[in-house]
Specification:
By secondary structure, the protein is of the alpha/beta class. 30% of the residues lie in helices and 17% in strands. The two termini are 22 Å apart.
Length: 335
């Protein structure tokens, strides 16, 4: 198993398939984009599947989420999902996407074995979407969400980052829109993971502010803490609404900055170039790609992975005076 010195067990693997993205969200990367990883440095499809197999068969991982960059720009994504769905024991498979390529791939992904998706959507206003992402692709995202729902990739979850003075006034509208369609909305506090290193805590819309904005229109009831487990989102039931499966409708808030959940963290991360990160905010990595390409056995690779997780810190330390933002931005780490 993947255990650290604080007794936490990592059962949730986040796999970045690429650092490339077809949007340029202002809170993530500069308008001109970034210097992408050279193709020889990226894990091959077979290497990704092998590492996922080691995680599942030898290290006790039970959930695998494919991320990016934007994972749907990777040509082999459907094949990777299909291969991972054949593993024993079979892990739960999900994918986080900006939704642009989802209308054309949702059915194939479902047939390959994907269980569900999380789609990033920060606004329903086309002009605001263009301002935030520097691309005019809102209709594609909305079509992708509908396609995911029609393909059975449920519950369809929507991830939203609010930016002060940009889209923070649209929080309640977003929730209403998601409730009408049976999507589960989750707001995420903006984190210091932008490529520009321009994050400013004073401009971040906090969890408390988000809940206040939603409560102006909706009645929210906290879900019992015991239902949360290691999930990053605190969830509230929305009175008077039901989800697509008939259960009470929910909205979540991931308060990574103001209410960190490090004590219950169960995640391990694999970057697109084969590095293990034991924390989203880690400042060091463990190279598995080198071990793979030098002929390392499954046993040797698993042991490297165990050692990487054993040294995990107690918390991200965002509130510490000596906190240092990782050199890699979110697009290169994977969500």
């Amino acid at each position: 198993m993947l255990i650290d010195t604080f007794g936490r067990r990592a059962v949730d693997l986040r796999v970045s398939l690429t650092d490339r993205c077809n949007l340029r969200c202002t809170y993530c990367m500069p308008e001109q984009g970034l210097a992408w990883l050279p193709k020889p440095q990226l894990l091959t499809d077979a290497e990704i599947v092998r590492l996922v197999r080691i995680a599942v068969a030898d290290l006790g991982v039970s959930e695998v989420r494919f991320t990016g960059g934007e994972p749907l720009v990777r040509p082999g994504v459907v094949g990777i999902v299909a291969a991972c769905a054949q593993l024993t024991p079979r892990p739960e498979l999900s994918l986080t996407t900006n939704g642009i390529g989802l209308a054309r791939t949702a059915t194939a992904l479902r047939e390959a074995g994907l269980d569900r998706v999380n789609v990033s959507l920060d606004t329903l206003d086309r002009e605001t979407f263009h301002t935030l992402t520097r691309r005019d692709r809102l209709p594609d995202v909305i079509a992708g969400l509908a396609a995911a729902d029609a393909a059975g990739l449920r519950p369809v979850k929507v991830n939203t980052v609010l930016m002060r003075g940009v889209n923070d006034g649209q929080a309640a509208d977003l929730l209403g829109w998601c409730l009408e369609r049976g999507y589960e909305l989750r707001f995420i506090e903006q984190m210091p993971l932008d490529a520009q290193h321009g994050w400013d805590r004073s401009t971040m819309v906090t969890a408390e502010e988000i809940l206040a904005l939603l409560s102006e229109r909706f009645t929210l009831v906290p879900e019992p803490d015991e239902r949360r487990g290691a999930a990053p989102a605190e969830r509230w039931l929305v009175e008077g609404f039901t989800a697509a499966d008939g259960a009470p409708a929910r909205v979540g808030v991931i308060a990574s900055v103001t209410r960190p959940f490090c004590r219950a963290c169960d995640r391990t991360r694999l970057t697109a170039d084969g590095q293990i990160r034991n924390c989203l905010f880690a400042t060091s990595e463990t190279d598995l790609r080198g071990a793979l390409r030098e002929g390392g056995s499954d046993l040797e690779i698993a042991e490297l992975w165990r050692k990487a997780m054993w040294g995990k810190k107690a918390g991200a330390g965002i509130d510490n005076p000596d906190f240092a933002q990782p050199e890699r931005p979110m697009s290169a780490i994977g969500g």
